[in-house]
Amino acid sequence: MSTGADRAREDPRIIVLCIGNPDRGDDAAGRAVARALRALLADVDIIEEEGEATRVLARLEGADAAFIVDACFSGAEPGEIRRFDASAGPIPRAAFGASTHGFGLAEALELARALGALPSRCVVYAIEGGTFDICAPMSPAVAAAVDIVANRLRTDILANN
């Protein structure tokens, strides 16, 4: 008979890492997805971070599956959603253009891969942003994308279990 502790060790550790700065317009998208997802999923570790590379690496440690949400700025239409399977290979740096986090998400994931710390399943959802000004509100297109991404994540995570 398995105990609760045995089940905890057997269950895969799934994290959702929602990156963003809540005070920089569309960069708040990842954090808004975290709030929306908490209403949809109870048994998943939903983490909010500002996106500093060493914090991202620390959060990935020990995860069996990671789902990451971040705003990007590549020149596409604000609110456009892209999904990348980072466990299959590098995510395109050009898709993330300039990062408000300095060392970008693409570089942090490649460092995790090089260190053997990238989870065996790692999916990135990128929401195209339009404005990243300090104290700016999130744009309507990005706000609409937040709920779409939260629902897609819920589907991805439930399919993963």
Fraction of residues in H or I helices? 25-40%
Q: For the CA atoms, what is the radius of gyration? A: 15 Å
Overall strand count? 5
Order of helices and strands: HEHEHEEHHEH
| Main sheet: strand order | 2-1-3-5-4
Instruction: Calculate the terminal CA-CA distance, rounded to whole Å.
Output: 21 Å
Number of helices: 6
Low-pLDDT segments: 1-8
Helix/strand-derived category reads alpha/beta
What is the molecular shape?
A: globular
Largest sheet: 5 strands, mixed
Mean pLDDT: 88
Topology:
Blueprint: H1 4-10, E1 14-19, H2 29-38, E2 45-49, H3 53-60, E3 65-72, E4 81-85, H4 93-96, H5 105-114, E5 121-128, H6 140-160
Parallel strand pairs: 1-2, 1-3, 3-5
Antiparallel strand pairs: 4-5
Helix pairs in contact: 2-6, 3-5
